[in-house]
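Review box. Two proteins, two foldings.
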Amino acid sequence: MMSQQCQMGAELDNASLELGEEKPVQKTRFEDLRPVSQGLAYHDSGANQDHSIPIGFRTLSIQVTESLHPTKGKDDVVNFFENLTYHTDDVERLCKLFGITPERGLDKAVAARNIQRDGKNTIAQAKPRYIWKLLGYLFGGFCSILWVGVIIFFICWRPLSDPPSPTNLALAIVVILVILSQAAFSGFQDWSTGRIMNSILDLLPSECVVIREGQTSRIPVSELATGDVVMLSVGNKVPADIRLIETSGDVRFDRAVLTGEAEEVEGNTEDLGETFLEAPNIALMGTHVTNGHAKGIVVLTGARTVMGRISKLTNNTKVKPTLIQQEITRFIRLIICFTVILALSILIVWLAWLHRDHPTYMNVVSMLNNVMGCVVAFIPEGMPIAVTLTLSLVARRMKSIAVLPKSLATVETLGCVTVICSDKTGTLTQNKMTVISAGFVDETYTAQQFQEILDEDKSSERVAIRQLHQAAVLCNGATFDGATADLPLADRQVNGDATDGAVLRFTESFGNAPAIRESNSQIFQVPFNSRNKWMLTMYADYTPDTEPSEGNLMFIKGAPDILLPKCTSYWSAVTNDIQPFNSEAKAKLVKTQEAWSRSGQRVILVCMRQYAPSAAVGSNDFGPEIMRSGVENLIVVGLLGLMDPPRAESATTVSECRRAGVRFFMVTGDFGLTAAAIGRQIGIITTHAEPDSFLDVVKQTSELPEGPLPTCRDAKNRIQRSLVLEGKDLVQLTERHWDVVTRYEEIVFARTTPEQKLSIVNALQTRDNVVAVTGDGVNDAPALKAADVGVAVVSGSDVAIEASDLVLMGSFDSIIGGIRLGRLVFQNLQKVIAYLLPAGSWSEIWPVLLNVYFGVPLPLSSFLMIIICCFTDLSPCLSLIMEKEEFDLLTLPPRNHKKDHLINLKIYGQAYFFIGVMETFTAHSMFFLYMWKYAHIPVRDLFFAFEKYSDGFYGHTAEELAHFNAVGQSVYFVTVVILQWGNLLSVRNKRLSILQADPIRPKRRNPWLVVGALIAFVIAIFVTEVPGIQKLFGTASVPLEFWLIPLPLALGILCMDEIRKLAVRTFPKGPIAKISW
């Protein structure tokens, strides 16, 4: 009857499907609803915005509740959904409304028309808040204090200067240009990095299983249309708002993404609920299927869904700063504090001393220029650009190694990881299971032998073998994708998990599996989940004369250690009848299980029984009754052994992680012996002795000393043995037990539940470990979210990908590339900062201090300070971000993010008190040399000259003295630029000599160093030789010898750092090594 009515619905006038009048949906009369999309009568212009992203990757946290004072936007949304009636309409009427049948689904032409009318099934992305971004670019970081400089320079131009000073006006304009260039560059890099990240995001698959024209197939989520019939299974993210029409009886949804509540919600087809938002028969877009499976009809897509409409209210989410951003902010604040202190000290000295004792030496304008010279000098204005470029480069490199970080700082965090907890199936293994063994209590066969025996059994004498084949066919949740049904068996795509897929291929390869399925009517199913560790199917069982039998036929398959205690009899392959499952039979079965497990096979026990439920099939009480009473008095049918081969790169990945100082643990729901066998194959367990067990942990706990234990970051504090623990052991662990467990070098955790995986992560984190978790299943999601870095594989479930911080798009060993890149990014940023500080900060502040405190004519002007920071230093420092590894970074231990900061005392010592002192002393010496050689003024008379450095000083006019000072400042400038070449070559290697790692040979080749140095040289020539620049900013041409003398001095800086590196390499525990960066 329902089928006839649904077919009648298919004959509805298509013109009625395209009506789009916008009028309220009346709740009182169903007939007022427009066919197909009357929830779509609320069609909103946001539905077809260009700014959209795949639904699978937009995460919201929304609380949909009644409030005493609701906002208007949220109130409108709730009112809209309160008027919908999809949850109260029966299935027949829904089919008529959408013109479909549950078995056939939508026609492709109708689906295309619905998509054209409603838009793609995507959620409108919030438009960027460009005003706030622009303000951040213009006033964030160092720019805030530079704007103070702009204001002061303008004040010094007028009214303080009479006549107005064009130099101060020009300096104000130059600083504005610096700010604007930084803002423009940051904006461009922000856009560029976002474009790269979005291009990687597009590589992620986001698909769903639909029925169209009677064929089950996978389509992109964005191509889903209203009226589509969608198949949901455990691990899926719900792709739209869906009315459930069939369920497995135990389907549950995690609605935390919408409600913020961690408690799962049961889904069913009977309970209608009070409103659309609360109805258990509605699966809402973005929620996760955590258990069971279901079939449903898409009723709302894209911007009209609950998530789509409320997402407009959640565009003000504040982004939490990342670790690397916190480090950079810390550095900026530190520099600004030092700058303010120095500027205030100059102001105080001028007010308390210079203004009183040397009134003609420094007027208000000169004092303010010195204050701003101090500000410009101490702030490395080029650093924000360098950091921005570095992070942009990270995005490009991550794309090249097929890794998607959801935030760029995730990569740097990978460099800090000390423990990786990895799931086995689908992560360490290929998730391509194959049945290789089949057996009974009293017989075992290879898969090929089993097939041959069944094919040869023409007279059906081998009842036990036929029973195992039938049970394997009927107790299975996998199906072949209709689009690949015509392909050879091995090439067909399977919808379902890997275990069911392997059993499906096995049973389809012999016998008559389709006939078995057609002759049995399934009435109930409990899919496999990580808590129960078994799957159940129930079939209506009738005798040939149509009289009801003793009950429905039930099949269960799952973990032997879970199901064996519930078994009371078994099928014998020898006698071909049912025998009592006594202790002898159990010992035989366990022996077979352990033998297969030791060879790395996953062992599945297949059982059956007759069961007559008291509750009606499909009722709310039916599922709980089966869970409570159904899985008892089981008959053992047989065993299946499946092999999931390790990924080719798994062993290499484990080995490389160990070499990087990262412990690699396996955390799996599989049997302990199977997990240990795979662990040995891929190198997680390397010891030849039997692994320790829970009893060994208890023994070592009793021997622990009192008080806190030393950190296990140091390998010498670890237990250099292997350990295998199962879930039953984990529930017995105390905190002292965990102190022992977390010190083992090699661990396999088996038979774990999602909650136990989470407790493992928490136990490691509380003991000073930075934990990365890799996984692909729903059961991995809690641990992925709790980990410092959650890593999902792209072939994993939607839930796992949603919970992760980083997605591996290619092979598993790309995680090694992520760790290596994380460490390289951090080191290169340190090199950039160590390069910028000597000239862009230290060598610039001392001329100001000498001028203020010692009365020396200013050796370096504010304009030339700006040129050093923003131009001549910038191009060489950018070449440093292109540096390759100085050495194999995987030989370093993981960085302690609590102690090893981006900027530390060792870097300050290197930049200020080693390289900085040499550059400052050399540049001042060149300034004094020029003044002595050309102006014939000895150094001693330049100190404390104050107002004496004026007309008549050493027989020179004021104009001549100004010219000498201008040339001396340019000499100082040129000297610093050239000395930085030596710093550039030295800072690129922390420990290695340039003879070991030069920039020419292929291993460390970096042609950008030469390009950067040449650009700085050209800028220096332009600034000092162009007449217009000379006139406006007071620069002057530099005598030729002062271009040449700094060259060997730059080489001297390189040689001095080479001596430091030699001392560090020769005496790695000596005093120099301890203070070296």
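Next protein.
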Amino acid sequence: MIENPEGFLHASSPDRWKLSFGEKLYGRDNDTKAFMDAANRVSSISNDPLFDSLATLIGRRREVVMVSGHSGAGKSRLVKSAGAFLEKRGWRLLRCKFDRVVHPEPLSILAYAFDEYFGSLAICPMPAFQDTAGSHLELQEMRKRLKSIIRPEGLEILTKHIPSLRLVLDETYSLGSVEVNETMMASLFGKLLQVISTRRTPVLFFVDDLQWADPLSLALLSALMRGAGVDLLSHQSGQVGSEDEINVMFVGSYRDNEVDSDHPVARVLRKLALDKTVNVTNISLSRFTLDILDEMLSDSLCMPIRRVRSLSHLVMQKTDGQPLHVIEFVQALTMDNLLTHSFARGWEWDADSIDICPMTDSVAELFSYKLQRLPKGVLLGLQILSCFGSQIDKHVIRFVANYDGENSVDITAAIDVALGKGLVEQAAQLVSFSHDMIQKAAIDSIPSHDIIPLLHKLAASLIKNASAVGESDSVLFVVVDLINRIGSDATSCPKQRMQYADLNLRAGTKSINVPDFVAAATYAECGITFLGADSWEIHYDVNLQLHEVAVLSHSVLSHFSSQHGNRDQLKKRIDAVFEHAKDFSDKFKTHCVWIKLLSITDLSRAIEESLKALEILGEPLDTADIDYNVVSDELSKLKEQFSGKRDKKFLSTNRLTECNKARAMKVMSSLTFYYHQRRSCLAAYVACQMMKITMTYGHCEDSAFGAAAFACALVNTLDDIDEGSAWGQSTLSLMNLYDKEALMSSIYGLLYGVVFIWKEPFQLQLEPLAQSIRSSFAKGEIEFAVINTITYVGRSFFSGKNIRVLIGEVEALARQHGNLFCNISSSDSSDKPVCNPLIQLHLTMAYNTLHDLQGATDTPEEEVSSPLEKVIFSNNDDIIKDTIETERYGVLQAVLSYQAIKLFMLRDMDSALQYTNMYIEHFATKDHHVKYSSIWNTFFEALITFHFMRQTGEEHYQVRGESALLKMREWSRHSDWNFKNKLLLIEAECYNTRKEFDKAAVCYESSIKYAQEHKFKPDEAIANELAGIFFFQRENYLTSCMFFLQSIQCYKTWGANAAARRVEDSMGDKFDSDLIQACQTEIASKLFADVSIETSSKKHHLDDQGVVTTTTT
């Protein structure tokens, strides 16, 4: 009454004569406040540079608001109301909505939010851009940010999903086939949000009706909310706080009565709640109370509360206080003349008649009642629209305008009438139902015997009219959604069934290219049902292709997708191909998938079947008498054969045209990987055979892999680093002859994991390794995804990537490799993801090591979110025991290195020596396995054995230490960057052991200097600690204390808080508090930045060759 006094004065305003509910949100004050508080946390950071810097330093939390409630509770209205207010404050709004009925093109729903925004920016209104300098500058600035933040290949991928982006970029990108995956799309959408959002213009990203989201979109949205998509495997991810975070508030809405504890949305919510980097605001919208309903009816009818109270009781009884139900029920009362208005008496109602009105179960019944009152043509028009979901593109409406020939209803006229009645809304290229309950009421009003014929007519009209203008691809997924709802049982015409199967094949193939393997599997399965089980002879080619799509999709989903696959269905499709394929060439693709899956659980069987396949293909391999000496001879002969003219001889060969030879090369690529897992010299032998085939028959894509494997063999087996590196560069040249992006998954892991490690800086190898992981996931290449992940994690750890960041990456990679690590030998449902034991073991050992070094955190144990919930073995000692028994030597090598290094850093020297001895036992004395050189194991073996030489005086420790020193000295010849600081620290320990203390002091200092310059934070921490121990033993306590303090700082910067606390505790036993305080003050004032170490009247330094020399002062 206070807000609208004139409306309450009898006959003073026409508003009093109309039923209007206005824009006010009744009973939502607390909900609106919670929403705005979250928005203020985003905008306050964005507008305060000082606070923004502090937030970045301590780790900014992303804001996520989840609005839940029953249908009609006002979820969308709350967000839109708050969004309109924020828009006036300079926010940018992006919005999209999932649909109950339609299964659209993969990622099209999320892409629509961006498409709508960029479309309005580039087109609406065009005169503003031409005449208004500010708008024109905004467009130019947006274009500049897009090109500076996103690479050209990323823009190409995005423009495929977001057509209006091309208008903003004002140029065409054409890069051919670009491999993408779920992680990459999350990263690209994240970067797009980074482009749109600035400190001055935060973004509200609203996603409505999450309960209907498809698995891929939900996974991508979750990644954006958690920041995983933006930060995962980024070249900046090793720098804590360096990422240019997006200023976005994510808002999702869902129906809580349709989301149980097992629903995908519920799982996402649990993960968000456990994520320390996300601040989740949950807003649950309840029903109206009687007091709120009194207020709403009082304002709507312009009557005092005391006069509407009796009506409120009646409405509450019929609607249970659900907001939309209330509104529609009251409007229905006016339509039935049970609520009327007269000039003389105002609003009146027939309480008795209302009381006996039948109670509707939901608001949908009221909408159905309203629709039945429409003219027949308008209702039929809305029924046709409802077949396409809650929102329909106008070009689809144009294509179905003549769906029934002369009997077609005028859909456009029906839309116009519905617009006037508020049943639909129109924006840009979309026509949307005002509420999805209206769409449901419309489609439910179609008689059951009419729905299938109507869908057939709409599908036929779309296919015919879109094909006539060359736009069939633009409506492919709309058509396929219609025909799959029709189903094979309702499609009797053989020609039509074949057409529908072929359309599903096209949709499945396009989905793989997104990639959306869930959608691809669905389309393949639907296509197969249209063909029928007995149609192999009639429709052989389409049947084979559909089965290949199904096999590939199910295999990827069953292994490492965040959505679970169906292993029973996978086996069924594989068996069908094996039964019906005409020859081995037709079953070859499926056979390759089958062997890859075998390798997960039975590596020996996978090797056996690969050798059988090579026999069939005419390239048999007899491995019975192949040993280390034979392999070395083969490598040496090939090396000599190519000597001096490597590139010319290899790259000048013709392209391989013989199909079976090309297939044999593909089998050999996988076989090389399987032998590599075994640390068997046969991996090098197979690589040699691939080189011979290439030289004899010509090169193919797999020749590049063969060359990379050959380069690895030269390094690992012949210890020829220079020749191996040269072959690595030749491999990169060969990749350029093919699709380089497609070859990354199989080749980069070998080159940057094994070959280039000896010459190029470790840190520069992380991005190529990350690219290889992305490519592996995109192509669904299980074995390469495994090995590339293992290599990337290990290299990141040893390169000194921040432990907290790396733990996050391990968790993200674990999710990508199967959501959660599931024990494959368990009796779980077949819908559980299969996770390769190899990846389980490697990520488990890495995760354990990282957490042990990180030490206890402030987060309560029950709040720690870990992907390692179901693992084969929970601790590293169990992994060691199993890998020795099963001869998984690759895993054993890694876990022994992790254990020795961790225990050395925690100064459990006896245990560290035990694991180092085990490493020597298994990898330095057995010729029948490849002598794998481990840089870090050699480094730590030297530090450990020199320590025990000083402790025990046993000469064999000195021998081992000096042997490791010689290896490091040789490796340093190839790369100062990677090895010099390590070499100097080993030399310092050696001089210390020999009691050449002056030289030791110089080497400690120089090792610290080079570790710092070359960004090896763990090495710097260790060198400082060992220097501290050295000077303490020399009774130079001030210098010792300084080095210990610097060691603590380095450990903390790296994230090894457990090691830092250990050093801190040891200092308390060594130094008094005054000395520690004095040293801390000196370090803080940077007085210790250039300390020169002098232990006598002689001064020692390193000359240009790295030799310790002495001068007298």
